[in-house]
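Deliverable D5.2: sample structural annotation.
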Amino acid sequence: MNMKKIILLAHDPGGYDVVFPVAQKLQRDGNAVDFYTIGPAAKLNPMYSVAKAELLRLIRNLLSNGEICGLVTGTSGGSSLELQAIAACRQAGIPTVAIIDYWSNYRSRFVCPTGEVIYPDYCIVMDGLAKDEAIRDGIPKTIISVLGHPGLDKYTACQTMMRCCSNEWNKVLFLSQPLSAFYGENLGYTEQQALSDCIKVVTKRNNCSLHIKFHPKDAECFQQRYAKIAVSGNLIDILSDYDLVIGMSTMGLLHAVLMGIPAISYQPNLRQQDLCITNKLGLTKLSTSPQELEMLMNSRFDVQVTTNSSVLSQKFIWLDGHSTERVAGFIMEVFK
């Protein structure tokens, strides 16, 4: 392969989780790689950050100089920069790949604010479930490849044996998401309400404390309000410090389950389809009211770490821990 560059970029934290491991793998294999973070992803890894206003100018300059052999992006909500980069590369005849990081909102990831739909040449999804849902949502079947989820490899490597929980939780971690920014109150709840309910339920328990891990895109005023109980750092380093993890539909619930940590999906007054992947897989239980949450926390339940299950392993390719290798190999094939 010539030494033209593979350009990889991520805007949202979810996109960063799936793109960055691939960038590292491609670079380790001796490829010329430029990786860029913009927006919230830039806060996760400032080393690779570039100003939003500079990104498209930079890519267009590389294209005009014939220095790009392919583009790899994540997908984002509320930003069209990745889509504009895809459009610029496609217009120049450069192959493009987008990696989806979660089991929801497939088509809307590729819709610009103007309503224009911009698809990449190839769209990588996590598993057969995601492929079926993406096709139903309108993603062209011909561009979809099922290759796994690079962001999960490090968690499957940390998996532990199934354990039975005593329900005597001492430390509880709430994983926030900026759901209100995308759905308003259409889900029936907001992240603020979910956290408020969790605090009330936890404070009823003896010797039990609650911390919150904010999402990079959470509202600043929300983060400031609960700054005293906030924790920071990489989630994989934090999770093992807690006895129980509570989230709404966050990917962090799957991270917790893969590490053998009890987890609950709390979505009060949910009035739309449940998008939580761990609920879909039967790995977590859904609670929709403070009363249900309290009952569930008072009960005993097993952490269903079933990554060794042949049934699940056959259906969900990401359980094998080799998603990054597959995605990197695929990229090298289509970019050569």
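Annotation notes: The chain has two domains: 5-155+317-335, 171-298. Residues 5-155+317-335 form a domain with the Rossmann fold fold (CATH 3.40.50.2000).
The annotation will be released with the project's public dataset once the embargo ends.
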